[in-house]
């Protein structure tokens, strides 16, 4: 096991609130033998009081066809990963995204066309359910690529080789590659929440075998930014079909992070796909998402 893998293995084994584990087990049970691992991530990792929050999970499955035999959901997840669903258990609310083991590995790698997966899984994560040891090892192997991807793309543009400078550069760039409801400067708070963690992990990441030049790195980020903004809109529209109450959740999240007072109208609830598409220009104009 590499030093980075050992670091992440210890981190993802840290204990969580028992209700989180129970919820993860219930999520996995919905998909039977297709379920391979459930990962708990996001700001709720740092919270001791979970009531009233929206917990974030990733469900890793063996394949989409195994998860949804003969269903359009399998095709949707393959074409525009991930599918996202709401979930409630024991008084807690959550959402979970579904990725196959193959897609989870690919989307953590440096060749990924969007930042959404590797940016999240370079941050602290807990493995809260696993089918077996092989599933754990497969998830860990995929996650090991995430911090290396960030460093490969951010190090050429960082103001220094200090790991914290690289992390800050990388997260600032990733926030510019998606439609974000969070206020500017939010990316820096990721590091500020646990600078010792990021310094320690960053020191373990080996230099890229073929480092990018600053110009090459800028070109890669420009492509990630263009594609990421587009995919954010596409995923938003898709979520209105796969996420019951998706428009309400989207507006709640934007109001929470951006301080806006957007309200969902009856017609938007009736036609969620159209609502999701038409909301985007309005939100961009207001500066609620960037």
Task: Provide a descriptive summary of the structure in words.
The chain has 290 residues and is of the alpha+beta class. The protein has one domain: Beta Polymerase, domain 2. 56% of the residues lie in helices and 13% in strands. Strands 3-4-2-1-5 form a five-stranded mixed sheet, with helices on both faces. β3 and β4 form a beta hairpin. α7 packs across α8 and α11 crosses α14. The longest helix is centred in the C-terminal third of the chain and has 29 residues. The protein is globular.
Attribute tags:
290 residues, alpha+beta, Beta Polymerase, domain 2, five-stranded mixed β-sheet, 14 helices, 5 strands, globular
What's the short version?
Helices cover 56% and strands 13% of the residues.
Q: Give the total of domains.
A: 1
Low-confidence region ranges:
none
Query: Judging from the principal axes of the Cα atoms, what is the shape?
Result: globular
| Strands, count | 5
């Amino acid at each position: 096991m590499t030093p980075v893998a050992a670091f992440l293995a210890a981190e993802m084994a840290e204990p969580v609130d028992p209700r989180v584990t129970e919820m993860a087990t219930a999520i996995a049970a919905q998909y039977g033998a297709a379920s391979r691992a459930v990962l708990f991530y996001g700001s709720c990792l740092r919270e001791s009081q979970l009531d009233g929050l929206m917990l974030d999970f990733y469900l890793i499955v063996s394949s989409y066809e195994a998860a949804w035999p003969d269903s359009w959901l399998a095709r949707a997840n393959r074409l525009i990963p991930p599918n996202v669903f709401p979930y409630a258990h024991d008084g807690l609310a959550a959402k979970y995204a579904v990725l196959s083991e193959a897609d989870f590995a690919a989307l953590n790698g440096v060749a990924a066309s969007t930042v959404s997966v590797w940016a999240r899984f370079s941050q602290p994560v807990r493995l809260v359910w696993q089918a077996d040891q092989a599933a754990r090892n497969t998830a860990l192997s995929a996650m090991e690529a995430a911090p290396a991807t960030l460093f490969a793309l951010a190090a050429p543009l960082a103001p220094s080789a200090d790991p914290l400078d690289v992390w800050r550069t990388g997260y600032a760039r990733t926030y510019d590659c998606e439609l974000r409801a969070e206020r500017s400067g939010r990316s820096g708070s990721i590091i500020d929440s646990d600078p010792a963690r990021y310094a320690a992990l960053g020191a373990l990441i080996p230099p890229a075998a073929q480092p990018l030049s600053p110009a090459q790195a800028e070109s890669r980020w420009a492509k990630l930014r263009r594609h990421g903004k587009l995919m954010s809109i596409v995923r938003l529209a898709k979520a209105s079909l796969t996420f019951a109450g998706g428009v309400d959740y989207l507006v709640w999240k934007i109001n929470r992070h951006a301080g806006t007072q957007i309200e969902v109208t009856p017609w938007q609830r009736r036609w969620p796909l159209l609502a999701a598409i038409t909301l985007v220009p309005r939100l961009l104009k207001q500066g609620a998402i960037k």
